[in-house]
Amino acid sequence: xxxxxxxxxxxxxxxxxxxxxxxxxxxxxxxxxxxxxxxxxxxxxxxxxxxxxxxxxxxxxxxxxxxxxxxxxxxxxxxxxxxxxxxxxxxxxxxxxxxxxxxxxxxxxxxxxxxxxxxxxxxxxxxxxxxxxxxxxxxxxxxxxxxxxxxxxxxxxxxxxxxxxxxxxxxxxxxxxxxxxxxxxxxxxxxxxxxxxxxxxxxxxxxxxxxxxxxxxxxxxxxxxxxxxxxxxxxxxxxxxxxxxxxxxxxxxxxxxxxxxxxxxxxxxxxxxxxxxxxxxxxxxxxxxxxxxxxxxxxxxxxxxxxxxxxxxxxxxxxxxxxxxxxxxxxx
Length: 332
Fold this sequence. Notes:
This protein is 24% helix and 17% strand. By secondary structure, the protein is α/β, with parallel strands linked by helices. It is globular, with a radius of gyration of 21 Å. GO terms for molecular function: arylformamidase activity.
C-alpha cells in the first residue's frame, strides 16, 4: 500500500473523501490503548515526560497563551457560536446601597458567563468530530455523544492530562521573517514543520508526548487589522498532508493561533470541510487546540533562544463536554 502523499501537490483535489479515507486508514490508532480508551494521544504524556517538562522551569517566568473571553471576540454566530456574554449578578453599587441583605456591612459581587465552550482559547475534545458516523476508537457516534453530552470521552477525562513539555514552532517567523505572518490560505507541510525545527535548533525537537504549538501569525494580523473573517474564513494552517507527521512524531496535542487549526480553504476544488479534523480527532485520537495567542510566547522564545517550556493547559472538568475553554500557560 502506497503511503499517502505528504505534500499538497500530491493531493487529488477532486476527491476529498478518498484522500481523507487513505489517511484515516493509514494512521488510525483505534485499539492502541485498549478498547476503553478515552484519552487518545494524550496517553503519550507519561510521568517521565512530565518530569522532563518540569525540569525546563529555570527562571519562573509565566506567559499566558489565552485570548480574552469577552463580547469583543471573533465569533460571528456560525452554528450558534457567539462571543461570551458576561453579566453581573451583584455589584459594588448594590453593596453601597445596602440592598444585598448581608449583616454588619459586608458586601460582595457575583457574576455569570454564558458562552459556547469553543468560542475562545480552547481544546477540541475527542467527541467533537466524527468520521462516517464513528467517533474515537471506533465507537458509534450516536453511542458516544447524545443530548446528555459525551457519555464516553467527555473532556472531564482529560482534566489531569494537560501538562507536558510544550514546543513552539514559529512558522510565521520562519517562513516569512519580514512580517512573521503566514498569508491566509498557506498550507503548512510536514517539510515546513521539519525545516522550522531545524532552523530553531535543538530545543525545538519534537517527540512522543510533546504538546506542539504552531504560530502562523494570523492572530497578530487580526489584532492589528480587525477580526474580519478570522472566525471561519481563509487562514493559514496545517495541510491535510501533515497527518503522517502527526502520527509518526507521537505528539500528544497540537494547538494553533487560528480559528480552525488547518488551512482554509481546505485544499480541494470541490466541497470539503475540515478534512484534517476528520482524520486527526476520531482516527488518530489527537487533542487539538485553537484560538491560542502565541505572540508573547514567540517573543519570549526568541529572546531566550529556546523553544521548549513547561506547558500547563488543563481543560475544565465539564462533564460530558466535547471541548473546553482554557488558559494555557508556558512556564520558563
